[in-house]
Amino acid sequence: MMPSRPFACAFALALSCTVSPLAMAQDAQPDDDGNADIVVTAQRREQSLLDVPLAVTALGGDSLAERGVTNSAQLGDAVPNLQINSPYGNTQPNFSLRGIGVANEYNSNQASPVGVYLDDVYLAPRTSHGMGLFDLDRIEVLRGPQGTLFGRNTTGGAVNFITKKPDLSGSNGYLQLGYANFDTFTAQGAAETTLSEDKLGLRVAANYAKGDGQIRNVFPGGRDAASTDTLQGRVALRAKPTETLDITLRAYGGRDRGTQAAVHGLGVFRTGLGFFEINENRVGVNRTDAWGFSANVALELSDTLSVTSITSYDGGSQNLQQAADGAPLDILDINWRSQYRQFSEELRANYDGDGVSFVGGLFYGWDRNVTDNTFNLPLPPAGGFFQHYRQVRNSYAVFGQADIDLADKLVLTLGARYTHDTSGYDDAHANLFIGAVGAAQTPIATTVPCAGVAGTCAYDPTARFALSDKNDALTGRVALSYTFDSGMLVYASYNRGYRAGAVNGGGYTSSAGIGYIKPERVNAYEVGIKGRAGGRLLTYAASAFYYDYTNQQLQDTRAGPVSFLVNAPKSEVYGLEVETTLRPVDGLRVDASLGLLHSKYKQLTLQGANLSGNDLPFAPRMTAQFGFEWDMVDVGGGTLTFAPNMAYSSRQFFSPFNEANAPGTGQINSELQQGANARVNAALSWSNDAITVRAFANNLFNRKLYGYGLDLRGAGFPYNFLVPAAPRTYGASIRYSF
């Protein structure tokens, strides 16, 4: 099925009016003509953003600050057709691009279909994706399956966080202090020194934030929800002993100790409360840690050939104490605990000769997740389930992509990647126990391994469950692009993406529901255009796309409570994206973007309900962003700048059921959605060469919005699980650069 007429007309209008845009909301250095020349590495080599035949949004560190984006979980306000949600606040964010994400999956062992990278290092655990943003060079968001160069599990796209590294000349840095409502104190800074000119440099950066809970808890003595308590640091050492050898060593570490996200749950205890209030006896703390080391070694073998090795070892943990009932009763209290380790090695070669540019190489990735979860339920007497398992995954790949000049300004791109994935799920055991929340647990029955109803298998402390799986996939890219004399680039492409099969990490009441499901696959077709008009006046890009999407992996929660991981056999996704940057006069930059999206299940039945024709979760049909930066006046030796922005989203569903209910259940799935909304942020700053003073307000009009929802009524609880998004925040900061 091809895109409907409204989408086609919108695309044609965008092309004819040249208001077809790519969000250039980023810092850029002017070239000799005074035009923004934005360099990205979306194809694993340095290129101008306008020369890349992909839908890419690049965002610089200063632009992120002007938009009020300080955490990766807020990126959805800056990128079209990007949604970010989580049942845990900023912890373990779920990225969804063009409707492709983890849907309603909440277990820590699942890989994100939107690959998240830190300095080209793939981050396997989703807990590590919830990072504070500081001392960044830029963020690159690649929309659409990246089946060649960013090939691991990227059916939706890739997000690459690129940190600043020493430039081997002089010394520089900054220190920034801030204060905001909810008694929030922030501090960040970086310092760089050149130890040997053009040879050796060191850069150190840190970020700290601590503030009270943003959601008031009326329970006597109870913690407020959604507080902030983070500390992060990063060190980069760069050595360039010769002109042809460039080595960058990075180490980072961070921790988060904020309180859990607020939950709107049992309705009787919502009486008399405001939207940003809860009545909860057990607001827990989200304890997460992440650390890692990487070595990037680049060697130029000749003027046309170079090789790069990227080696990394990363780890972390999460310990989330979540009261999932939103009530002063112990109805559902969960302790999510996991420990992570991962190793990866990528070796690639870059060739740039007459008429051919080639990137190819080998990849190996290993990651391990050891999980110990406790689910306290209102069982008579008090008790619940304890769950343990270990998951180990290995991924091997060989890849290559070539850009071939067929004629002057006409380029053919051919890319392929062969991937072999293995996954092992072992040492799995779960039991039913007696014991109140926080008290000693007395096991009374084994539930994993046990194929029957919970409580029907005698307790056996030595019983274990294990299984394994492997997948092979051939993915890749074919594209044809042409650059006109004006610099305008047009392209058409086919991309195939793949996400490895997965095991149900939510099976703890029985081993009957624990098994591997099929890999996801996406065949994506895209046409696009990007360029400049009027010299520096307008930068634009647009893309239209169609996806044939099979076997989306999602959770099916049923009474028991029992969770099943299942495949949605067939879906289709198509849409249009438009981004632009307009500079009508000196001192004024206007950024705008639009995303239109159609996402439907063509074939899906859950719990006896035919859901064919339903929207995919977290896939609003329209998103839009608009903002400007206006240098209003020069005063006091500096410039006063006003920078408001707006992010709009149409209605989105949190469940594949949309508003339908499975027959014979207590579901009320119409509760699991967020209606159309617009959030406004604004900043006013004064800056000169050394000092920036900034005042800001995010969610200026204090919109009452839900960011996540999960069906618990169908699991046998008398309420659904809903997480409110952040209220209005405002504050000020001062930054000194040297």
Provide a descriptive summary of the structure in words.
With 738 residues, the protein is an all-beta fold. The strands form ten sheets. It has a 22-stranded antiparallel β-barrel. A five-stranded mixed β-sheet has the order 5-10-11-8-9. Strands 1-2 form a two-stranded antiparallel ribbon. Strand 32 (562-582) and strand 33 form a beta hairpin.
Distance linking N and C termini: 57 Å
Assembly category = single chain
- E-strand count: 44
Structural class: mainly beta
Shape: globular
- Chain-averaged pLDDT: 92
List keywords for this structure.
22-stranded antiparallel barrel, single chain, disordered N terminus, 44 strands, mainly beta, globular, 2 helices
Brief rundown of the structure:
The chain has about 750 residues and is mostly beta strands. The protein is built from two helices and 44 strands.
Blueprint (SSEs and pairs):
Elements: H1 5-17, E1 29-30, E2 36-37, E3 39-40, E4 47-48, E5 56-60, H2 61-66, E6 82-85, E7 94-97, E8 114-118, E9 121-122, E10 136-143, E11 157-163, E12 172-180, E13 184-196, E14 200-211, E15 216-217, E16 228-242, E17 245-256, E18 277-278, E19 286-300, E20 305-323, E21 333-353, E22 356-377, E23 383-407, E24 410-434, E25 442-448, E26 465-483, E27 489-499, E28 502-503, E29 516-517, E30 520-533, E31 538-558, E32 562-582, E33 588-603, E34 605-606, E35 609-610, E36 622-635, E37 638-649, E38 652-653, E39 673-674, E40 677-687, E41 691-698, E42 706-710, E43 721-724, E44 729-737
Parallel strand pairs: 8-11, 15-18
Antiparallel strand pairs: 1-2, 3-4, 5-10, 6-7, 8-9, 10-11, 12-13, 12-44, 13-14, 14-16, 16-17, 17-19, 19-20, 20-21, 21-22, 22-23, 23-24, 24-25, 24-26, 26-27, 27-30, 28-29, 30-31, 31-32, 32-33, 33-36, 34-35, 36-37, 37-40, 38-39, 40-41, 41-44, 42-43
